[in-house]
Amino acid sequence: MNELVLVTGATGQQGGAVARRLLADGWRVLALTRDPARARDLAAAGAEVVRGDLEDEASMAAAAAGAYGVFSVHPGPLAPGQDEVRAGKLLVDVARRAGVRRLVYSSALAADVFQAAKWEVEQYLAASGMPYTILRPSSFMENYLNPLFGLRDGALRTALAPHVRQQLIALDDIAAFAADGFAGRLDGRTLTLAGDALTPGEVAAAISAAIGVTVPYEQLPIDELRRVNPRFAQGYEYLNNNPEPPVDIAALRALQPALMTFAQWLEQTGSAQLKAGFGVAKKNLRPSQK
């Protein structure tokens, strides 16, 4: 396979996972990033790295020229100063003019209900006339590796209410569905992605079993999260008061038999990283937790 795929957000979580999967599958990858120095691992793996900005038409047009496919993802709340709708529509226009044959857009769970910017981009892409796949990932399992959403001070701390069952997806599984999109197996489809659905207590129990240490769940005060990122806080407030639309995980597993549960993700990649993080966190454990 010698086709070229432009991967935006290549130094982010989703873009990086997609780039690595495509390289492993034999695609040529053009990794777009605002900071090429952060993409050294992708360059070492065989990707060509190019500097670009999602809101800069000239750089996007140059990057899309000659590409078979484009993976489109926007950092959303991690880039509050950027116009997500303008950037998403611009990439669709640039890809269409460049003759790109397939565009895979990573949107978000319940975009048509709660993610107005992503929903607008979805509709624009669907009306563009070019072959597309829309992926709507649920919360990343890898988020639990981030102290803001995971292990901190010897406990699992998120802003999620204890009763809320949250749907989860591994980044490698998002990448697998993206690869299927570029292979033409998902043309015109919109897939909401999840491999598991757990309450915070169930997540804490699974992590405890994986790392061999009891990890309690403590709900992070929403105001504490709001001070870090108001859009993250808004998202958790919505989740705590509105159940997520249920994902048909069995149907997804029929498309991707290797789709991981949270326990499988822990076994394959997560537990080793969480153990390392817990090793740092446990230095600050309260006496009752030692």
Automatic annotation (TrEMBL):
<protein>
    <submittedName>
        <fullName>Uncharacterized protein YbjT (DUF2867 family)</fullName>
    </submittedName>
</protein>
<feature type="domain" description="NmrA-like">
    <location>
        <begin position="2"/>
        <end position="228"/>
    </location>
</feature>
<dbReference type="InterPro" id="IPR051164">
    <property type="entry name" value="NmrA-like_oxidored"/>
</dbReference>
<dbReference type="Pfam" id="PF05368">
    <property type="entry name" value="NmrA"/>
</dbReference>
<dbReference type="InterPro" id="IPR036291">
    <property type="entry name" value="NAD(P)-bd_dom_sf"/>
</dbReference>
<comment type="similarity">
    <text>Belongs to the NmrA-type oxidoreductase family.</text>
</comment>
<dbReference type="InterPro" id="IPR008030">
    <property type="entry name" value="NmrA-like"/>
</dbReference>
<keyword id="KW-0521">NADP</keyword>
